[in-house]
Each structure stands twice: as structure tokens, then as C-alpha cells.
TrEMBL record:
InterPro entries: Bud32, Kinase-like_dom_sf, Prot_kinase_dom, Tyr_kinase_AS
Protein name per the record: EKC/KEOPS complex subunit BUD32
Task of the protein: Component of the EKC/KEOPS complex that is required for the formation of a threonylcarbamoyl group on adenosine at position 37 (t(6)A37) in tRNAs that read codons beginning with adenine. The complex is probably involved in the transfer of the threonylcarbamoyl moiety of threonylcarbamoyl-AMP (TC-AMP) to the N6 group of A37. BUD32 has ATPase activity in the context of the EKC/KEOPS complex and likely plays a supporting role to the catalytic subunit KAE1. The EKC/KEOPS complex also promotes both telomere uncapping and telomere elongation.
UniProt subunit comment: Component of the EKC/KEOPS complex composed of at least BUD32, CGI121, GON7, KAE1 and PCC1; the whole complex dimerizes.
EC number: 2.7.11.1
Length: 275
């Protein structure tokens, strides 16, 4: 049997909090934990960037610190601008200690978003449709497709709000979009698929984000997401135009960004023809 995975030691004070933070995901750059903030009933997301032992310690410290501060800055700016992102609760760019002496990582604690990532929602929906779509009548089929169109439109609108606030995300995939589950008491939608698409679209993961109001940067943001949806959610891809619609309606600058998007797509096609 393979050795059980042991996550790296947490920085202080999280090596010592009860209940212990629960490791949710481990990316190349960051580990994501669920923990609590101030009160055990308030959930929080803790993003830890461990130091990288193979990098020179001074460079490592500088990069880790820059990335986490950058992410926190973007988030707090976006909260102020009314864009739907998790609020920043706490931050330490010189995470010290834990059990490991000289731990040079950094961490960011933010509001917990209660709900699924869009990748999971679309994957579940597509899996159900693949198996069962033939059992739906025309009206039901139309209803299902229109739920996806509506979701993509809401995503486009949220991205428009992000760009309008002067930030480009830099890493848009359906794993970096979440749906905040509606609060109890809201009537839930009924669908034979059992997959809800309700909830506010929330943007996460600003580790590669930057401040920019350039059409090129904005268009590349959209293009990257378009490609990601095309490759991971083939059944949803035909509805991509809805995302563009939602985006177009979100702010006045959208028109020139969308024009640029056509150039970016063209360059992408040329590149894939060449090689
Ligand atoms: N604020 C949050 N609330 C709830 N879950 C979150 C939150 N932030 C991140 N997650 C979960 O953790 C995963 C990884 O977080 P992310 O910021 O995207 O880090 P990475 O750089 O590793 O992709 C997300 O895909 C999501 O499932
Ligand atoms: Mg991510």
C-alpha cells in the first residue's frame, strides 16, 4: 500500500488551532484548507503558500511574499468595487514557524464560499446528459440547455464586473469560478438532472491576477476561459456565446474588448494550424 499522504506542517498559529484545519486541495503553488475564523461557527478558507526548498531562500521568500500580497490586494480592491470575490480576513506574508524552523511560506485567510466550483457543476450536468438526454422531451431539453445558457451569461456578467474594476484574472478556468449556494428559504429549481446551477457566481484564485485595463489583457482572459470550457465541457461549449452576451451587457468598454477577442481567437487558430 502507498504511504498515506502527509501534508506539510502548517505555519503558526494554524499548527495549533482546534478544530485542526482540513486540507481540501493541493495545487502546484498553494494548499487550500478549510478552517474557522474567530468563532468555531465561522468557516474560513486558508490558502497557504509553502516555501519552495529548491529555490534560493531570499528569492523564494520574495516571490512567495509578492504573490500572496498581490492576491490579497486584488481581493480587497474587488470587494470594495462590489465584485463578487471572497473577502480577505487575515494575511501573513512572513509565515513563521509551525513545527518547522525557518518556514518561509505565507498565508491568506479569506471568507468561505459555501458552494461548488463551476467545473464540478458542469461535469455533473454533462455526465447526466450524456447518459439520459435521450429520455427528455423537447421542452425538458430546452429547459436544460437554457439553464446552462443562463449560467454562462451570469459568468460573463461577473467577468465584465471584474474587468471594469481594472483587474484581469490571469488564470480563468471553471475551477476558479464558484457558485455561492442560495441561502435557505429560496425556492430551489427543479431539474431531472439533480444538478443545481443557482447561486451567485464568485471568482476565486487571484494568484496570477494583475491590474490592467488593456483590451488585449482582457480579451486573453476571456479566451483562456473559452478554451478551458471547450476542452473540459464540450456539451456546454456551444453556449459560449451567452458568456459573451453577458459580458457585453456588463460595461461600456466590453465592446472593444470583444472586438479584440476576435483577433485573439484568430491568432489562436493560426497557432494551432502551425503546430
Ligand atoms: N474562499 C473559498 N471558499 C471555499 N472554497 C475555496 C475558496 N477558495 C478556494 N477554494 C477551493 O480550493 C480550491 C483551490 O483554491 P485556489 O485558490 O483555486 O488555489 P490553486 O492556486 O491551488 O488553484 C478551489 O478550486 C476551491 O475548490
Ligand atoms: Mg485554482
Amino acid at each position: 500500500m502507498a504511504d498515506e499522504y502527509k501534508p506539510p506542517a502548517l505555519p503558526a498559529p494554524f499548527n495549533n488551532t482546534r478544530p485542526a484545519p482540513e486540507l481540501l486541495t493541493q495545487g502546484a503553488e498553494a494548499h487550500l484548507y478549510k478552517t474557522v475564523s474567530l468563532d468555531p461557527s465561522i468557516p474560513a478558507a486558508l490558502k497557504v503558500r509553502p516555501s519552495k526548498p529548491y529555490r534560493h531562500p531570499i528569492l523564494d521568500r520574495r516571490l512567495t511574499r509578492q504573490r500572496i500580497i498581490q492576491e490579497a490586494r486584488c481581493l480587497s480592491k474587488l470587494v470594495r468595487e462590489g465584485v463578487s470575490v471572497p473577502a480577505v480576513l487575515a494575511l501573513d506574508w512572513e509565515g513563521q514557524g509551525g513545527d518547522e524552523a525557518g518556514w518561509g511560506g505565507a498565508w491568506l485567510m479569506m471568507e468561505w464560499i459555501n458552494g461548488p466550483v463551476v467545473r464540478v457543476v458542469l461535469e455533473q450536468w454533462e455526465a447526466w446528459m450524456k447518459k439520459n438526454a435521450s429520455s427528455l422531451d423537447a421542452a425538458q431539453l430546452e429547459q436544460e440547455n437554457s439553464r446552462v445558457r443562463d449560467l454562462l451569461r451570469r459568468i460573463g456578467k461577473t467577468l465584465g464586473g471584474l474587468h471594469k474594476a481594472g483587474v484581469v484574472h490571469g488564470d480563468l478556468t471553471t475551477s476558479n469560478l464558484m457558485l455561492r449556494l442560495p441561502t435557505e428559504g429560496t425556492e430551489s429549481e427543479t431539474s431531472p438532472t439533480g444538478v443545481s446551477m443557482q447561486g451567485e457566481v464568485v471568482l476565486i484564485d487571484f494568484g496570477l491576477a494583475s491590474q490592467s485595463a488593456q483590451d488585449e489583457d482582457r480579451a486573453v482572459d476571456l479566451y483562456v476561459l473559452e478554451r478551458a470550457i471547450g476542452s473540459t465541457h464540450p456539451r456546454s461549449e456551444p453556449f459560449m456565446e451567452e458568456l459573451v452576451h453577458g459580458y457585453r451587457e456588463s460595461h461600456r468598454g466590453a465592446v472593444s474588448t470583444l472586438k479584440r477577442l476576435e483577433d485573439v481567437r484568430m491568432r489562436g487558430r493560426k497557432r494551432s494550424m502551425i503546430g
